[in-house]
Amino acid sequence: MTYKFQFRPYRRRFVRSLTTNHGKWDIREGIILHLTDESGKVGWGEIAPISWFGSETLEQALDFCRQLPEEITDEIIFSIPDELPACQFGFESAQEWESEANIITPNFSLLTPNSLFYSALLPAGEAALNQWETLWEQGYHTFKWKIGVYAIADELEIFESLIQTLPAFTKLRLDANGGLSYDEANLWLRTCDNFKANPELPLEIEFIEQPLPVEQFQQMLELSMSYKTAIALDESVATLGQLTACYQQGWRGIFVIKPGIVGSPSRLRKFCQQHQIDTVFSSVFETAIARQAALQLAAELSRNNRAIGFGIDHFFEQEETWFQSLWNDL
């Protein structure tokens, strides 16, 4: 199959800065892809890299798009190198997209499959205490809170306030983004185990996400066997190559998969179906285009009834008008 190829870079400012152990993030940049096949059918895709998380840089993705001809083939799409995982996802998603040429924008109504439920991201630090209630009223019952950002003594104090405040039957995830030391990871896990042992605690601490840096995989493997609180790998499994390597090294815990940067959707499907891994699908703060493709993968491949990490709408303004402007004005 041959496709006419167009692309547009974009910049979207967060309503509020996203603060993690990696630093502050103010602007989401990426690339929108547009493919038209020989019959006139249109496919939309998105390249939404996060270089500090393990993908290519935005500039590398732009360089790749700029060197492509105006007409590309399936062969070109499926030969994108593994060093460009966000490009692999974007182009394959566009190639798989099902829509008609007269549909100018993606179908934004397809973004909430009834079979899935969402985890909402809370801001780091004390701000979480002020925001969870608004999100709860919007229907979120699973929350992810960033840790490893401030002093551990302060975060533990906020954590205790948070779990005493959240309603019964809430699920809480703690995400360190690889920012803890080995001793701090032990302290967090021990603290969570103590809370989990309290029968009067009305909520569930679901897991701690990526407590240690990527290079400390063996220590995380050991920690996962030493505590009742589960550990989920995130940065360690950012790309399909990393995910495969961690599985081969014995990880059978939770894998947080960010479809937007993991790489080829077709190869991801094959791996997940073959190995039946415990997954949590998560956003990379993409637009509705990549989110639609990511949610489709989540619907196909999610197991164990875990909430997916796409509760991030409150970090951006509404996007329908923004998308129209991006494509029509450039």
N-to-C series of helices and strands: EEEHEHHEHEHEHEHEHEHHEHEH
Q: Give the biggest sheet.
A: 8 strands, parallel
Calculate the mean pLDDT score and round it. Answer: 89
| Side-by-side strand order of the widest sheet | 11-10-9-8-7-6-5-12
What portion of residues belong to β-strands?
15-25%
Contiguous low-pLDDT stretches (5 residues minimum) are 99-116
Which radius of gyration do the C-alpha atoms yield? 20 Å
SS-derived structural category: alpha/beta
State the separation between the terminal residues, measured CA to CA: 27 Å
> What's the helical proportion of residues?
25-40%
Number of strands: 12
User: What global shape is seen?
Assistant: globular
Question: Mind explaining what this structure looks like?
Answer:
The structure is a single chain. With 330 residues, this protein is α/β, with parallel strands linked by helices. Helix content is 37%, strand content 24%. The protein has twelve helices and twelve strands. The protein has an eight-stranded parallel beta sheet with strand order 11-10-9-8-7-6-5-12. A four-stranded antiparallel beta sheet has the order 3-2-1-4, sandwiched between helices. Helix 5 links the parallel strand 6 and strand 7 (171-175). The longest helix has 15 residues, at 182-196. The radius of gyration is 20 Å and the shape is globular. The two termini are 27 Å apart. 42% of the residues are buried. Residues 99-116 have low confidence and may be disordered.
